[in-house]
Known about the structure:
The chain is mostly helical. It contains three helices and two strands. It is rod-shaped, with a radius of gyration of 26 Å.
Amino acid sequence: MTKLDRLARSLPDAREILDDLTKREAKLSLGGSVHDPTDPVGRLLFNVLAMVAEFESDLIRLRTREGMKVAKADMERSLSSEGCRVGASALGGDGVWSAGLVAVRRAVRDARSG
């Protein structure tokens, strides 16, 4: 295994794998380092690496959600500034715009102003 975050997605998952390795008396090779789950230092290092991997995964999820919020706000701002925003009631109540609806609204707007 080259990276622990490829082995387990969360700390509880990593601990379950560690317990299984301990029962089997197997060693784990991560990035060229061999970790012995029966040794206290090996368990400590494995847990620290698992915590860091979970932290990195959480940061990626957080940044993705933040990026999606920014992209949505930019899209809404762009559509409203072009006169393409329609009320939620016109869209069946959910307020979702399809690309086709935006294109039709732009064509209607351009035809009226042209």
